[in-house]
Fold this protein.
Amino acid sequence: MPALLIGLCLAFPGASEADAEERLPGSGLTARDALDRSDLVVVARVADKGRGGSLSGMGEHFSGVSIEVIDRLKGEAAKELTLELKVQSRPGGRSKRAPEEGREYLVFLRRPNVKQVWTTKVMHPTEESLRLVRGLMKEGPLPGSGLEVREAAEYARVVAVGRVIEVAGGGAGEPGRLPYHARVRVARYLKGKAIGDPFVYLTAGSAPNGESESVPEVGQDYLLFLSQRPGEEMGAIKIVRPTEAMLRRAKEWLAR
């Protein structure tokens, strides 16, 4: 079976998700966001790191990078994949690290068309990271999955951790999106403040990878990014689970 040609283009929003990830490609994305953007998730070994070249001071370009798929967590893939790897950097910023030859990685991939596959994130395949990804796959994406945490933190007027105590559906929404209202009992605010237990408008549609977004469950805790225009009700622009990594990531962006 011929190897697929994979383009890997890395963007660096500012800080890595965790020091343990050694600033690997896509470290600015949480595992949840990477999963929502990916059609394929694999554990793979780098068989050949390929040939490297300079990107005019903006990083390095590697061609002919070969990886061997060891395990598939999501989607289908050939046993061997060949990729183009671009490791970009910012002047004065923390440089990213290309995957090393002979090592195994947890890789998130997406297909923009039938011929190409792009990488959204690379992690070390530790027991913790594998357990995290498998758990996220069971839970499914939440509303606002197409928006990154850094974007949600910038746009939101209120950011809070709270428990959903009521969910009501119904009414007309945008095409392909189901409207809901959720009442939230806030435990703590990270940005701004609301009066009482806010009644939040939200819509559930499709994640970037085509999966249907899930409606928040009553009795569960969430990290909510909320917006509100004068004279309008409060709306959720992104909802995520309040893991330690997610809270740390949100606080980093809110502190900027």
Notes: Residues 149-254 form a domain with the OB fold (Dihydrolipoamide Acetyltransferase, E2P) fold (CATH 2.40.50.120).
